[in-house]
Every structure is written in C-alpha cells, then in structure tokens.
Specification:
Blueprint lengths: L2 E2 L3 E4 L2 E4 L10 E6 L2 E6 L8 H7 L13 H9 L6 H12 L14 H6 L2 H13 L13 E5 L16 E5 H11 L6 H10 L5 E6 L6 H6 L6 E4 H4 L3 H8 L6 E5 L3 H8 L4 E7 L3 H10 L7 H16 L2 E3 L1 H10 L3
Parallel strand pairs: 8-10, 8-11, 9-10, 11-12
Antiparallel strand pairs: 1-4, 2-3, 4-5, 6-7
Helix pairs in contact: 6-10
C-alpha cells in the first residue's frame, strides 16, 4: 500500500488537510512506496505503481490493492492465446444476454459493409470530396459530409468506387434524400428531382426555453399554423423528423429545451431560422414545476442563466409564454 506524503493542499484559496478532500477529488498529492515517490490524483491514491503490481502478480489490481483472484491469474495466463470457437460462442451468448437456444449466431458483415471498410473505399471517398472541394453540392455547407451514390450500390456494384457516380452531401441533406426515396434502388433521376425541389428558404422557428416556461403548451396550441416538432419525443432522430416536417407547406416550429447551439449550427444554411425564447422569471418557473409534481433542483437556476446567455447570442425575439403565443399567432407566413 502506498504511503501519502502530502499532508495539506491548497483548495479554493485555503490550505486544508488532505483528509478533508472528497473521495473523488482530482487534486494531485505525492505518494510513496518502496520504489520511490510519485505524484498522483487523490482519487487514485491507493493505486499500486507498476512495479508493485508486477510483484503482486498482476497489473489489474483494484484501487485499494485487493488480493489477486483466480480470475486475475486466469486472465494473465490466457494473455496472448487465441480464443477457441467454444470460448467465442460463450462470449457472444453473454453479449447478447440470451440462452443458447435463442443465440442468433456470430455477427458477420455483409458484402457492402466489407467494401465500405476497405482502403479502396476510403480513397474513393477522399477523391470525391476533393473534387467537390469538401462542400455539399446542394447547400454549400462544409463539415459533417458524406458521399452519396447516384446509382445505389445494390443497382450498380461495379460503380461503387466510381467518383462520377457519387456526390458530396451534408449528412442532414443525405438523410433527407433517403427519407424521401428510401435506401437502395436509387437513381440519378431521383437525385436531380431532390436537388431541384430542395428548399433552403424553408422557415424554421426554434422555440427555446427551460423546463417550466410553457413551450410545449404554446406549441400544441399552434399546430393548426405550424408543423410542430417536439425534441422530447424525437431527440434520437430529430433531424429526420424536421426533414419530414419540411415536406409540409407550413413553417416548422421546433420545441427544444437542450442542445440549442448544436442544432442551430447543424441546421443553419438548410433553413431560414428564427430563434425565439420564452423567458419567465425564476419564481414563475419554480411555481409551474411544483404545480405539476416536479422537484426544485439547483439546475433550474443554471438553466435560467443559460437561456438568457443563449438569447444574447442567437435570439431574435423574447417574451413570456402568453406573449410568445400572441406573437406567433399574429405572424403572417
């Protein structure tokens, strides 16, 4: 076991004893063992040095230097020895968390996936993007780019590495195309139709605000005027839901409480964006949260400040929930 040499540390401008530090504190202290002294974080103060671990017989001892188990010895003995098919099957069953009868078998990549992992495909992808100057051919956006095959791979396998059969698209635009035309059996005619009808001037309103300000209440009352997309219901695939909403003639109203900056940057250039913020006073927010059975936490104050900072950076209009409803209802779009 290592001996702690450091007695006191400076913490928030004060000199305190190391014993007063929290268990997971990352402040560095000096520890000593028979092999010498070293500096280490407080949370790892019980870790053995490499030489101590080697002498103990294994490198995978726990933070508090537990005794070496049979598992440790087996792991060390098996190191460098290829696993047998029986062992691989047991590991696979454990990973799937199923019985032997329910086991679906080993995962194997299909032909297309193997091609996409090849060095030849990576070179083809690089050449396609270099030709398009690393910009989306529809929106002109840079960053988060993907390569789209005009004739899909299942239709023309011989053209999978042909740069004349590929274009560079932004990831969100690429997903929009496949949402509309599906995956597989795609043609250049479909891409031309998609490009000609692509709307970069589609109006998208971000309805921002912390929990408790009434965003969802406002958005639900405006479904007759807007295509409403709620972040809480579709956050795993938000871009796809926005793309589907864009098919409508109505403007899009995105009810979003989190990752505002991230999605603004992702969608900027694809839509004509207006950032709206519902900003209620902190007492009103707390009252609404408690009235619906929620708990008051420290995060409420942090989100309160965060939303005001985001408004200063991105916002075009701010109001209370009632004022925001009247503003959106009065818009002539």
């Amino acid at each position: 076991m290592s001996k702690i040499i450091t007695k006191t540390v400076k913490y928030r401008g004060k000199e305190i004893s190391v014993n007063e530090l929290k268990e997971k504190s990352q402040i560095k202290v000096i520890v000593e063992c028979e092999h010498g002294q070293r500096e280490i974080r407080w949370s790892r103060r019980h870790r053995l040095c490499k030489k101590c671990s080697a002498e103990a017989g294994a490198f995978n001892t726990s933070p508090k230097g537990r005794k070496i188990t049979w598992g440790d010895k087996i792991s060390k003995a098996k190191k460098g020895i290829p696993a047998t098919d029986k062992h691989k099957k047991a590991l696979s069953i454990a990973q799937y968390r199923c019985s032997k009868d329910e086991w679906p078998g080993f995962y194997s990549k299909g032909e297309i996936h193997r091609l996409r992992d090849s060095n030849e495909y990576l070179e083809f992808r690089k050449q396609t993007m270099e030709r398009d100057e690393y910009t989306c051919v529809i929106t002109g956006k840079t960053g988060n780019l993907e390569v789209h095959h005009l004739n899909s791979v299942n239709v023309a396998k011989d053209k999978i590495f042909d740069i004349n059969n590929a274009v560079t698209l932004h990831a969100s635009v690429h997903s929009m195309f496949h949402l509309k035309f599906g995956n597989g059996n795609n043609t250049p005619e479909q891409f031309k139709e998609f490009k000609d009808k692509f709307k970069t001037n589609k109006k998208l309103f971000f309805l921002c605000g912390q929990s408790g300000v009434g965003k969802t209440y406002v958005a639900n009352r405006l479904k007759d005027k807007f295509e409403v997309v709620n972040y809480d219901y579709c956050k795993k695939d938000l871009l796809s839901h926005i793309a589907l909403a864009a098919e409508s003639n109505k403007p899009i109203l995105l009810d979003i409480p989190a990752l505002i900056s991230t999605y603004y940057k992702e969608l900027f250039g694809l839509y004509e964006i207006e950032m709206l913020f519902i900003l209620e006073d902190i007492d009103t927010v707390k009252e609404r949260i408690t009235s619906r059975g929620g708990k008051i936490t420290d995060s409420i104050q942090k989100r309160y400040k965060r939303m005001r900072a985001l408004y200063k950076k991105y916002g075009s209009y701010k109001s209370t929930s009632d004022g925001m409803y009247k503003y959106l209802r009065s818009l002539k779009i």
